[in-house]
Amino acid sequence: MAPWVCVRCAPFFAVRVSYELRLTRNIVFAVVEIAGKQYRVSPGDRIAVERLDAEPGSEVTLDSVLLTSTDDGVTVGTPAVAGASVRAQVIAERKDPKVHVLKYKRKNRYRHLSGHRHQRTVLEIADINT
Known about the structure:
Blueprint: H1 10-24, E1 29-34, E2 37-41, E3 46-50, E4 59-62, E5 65-70, E6 73-76, E7 85-95, E8 99-105, E9 110-116, E10 119-129
Antiparallel strand pairs: 1-2, 1-5, 3-10, 4-7, 5-6, 7-10, 8-9
């Protein structure tokens, strides 16, 4: 990188340097499928997923691991990586903010307002087993 950086080019160089640093670090992560959605997780991450039937404080094992990245390299499953699993602890259950749905038809005096709060389970990733 040049000893001086133009003001207009500074954001580009900052992004490039951070990308190069990410390439040099060995990051352990996995891509997990939970209730039809894919999440990229690392040990210590907290994620909010669709509601699971598990009590807060209990431990959950996620077997549908689609990809793992370790010091040995990247393993891609077809569709899942054989023998890989992710251990997670259930931290809490919560609700998302309320979403209002309004149905309205002009000239007919029709208005219908309803609301919905989606339920989520908060997981803390403990370990990735390959």
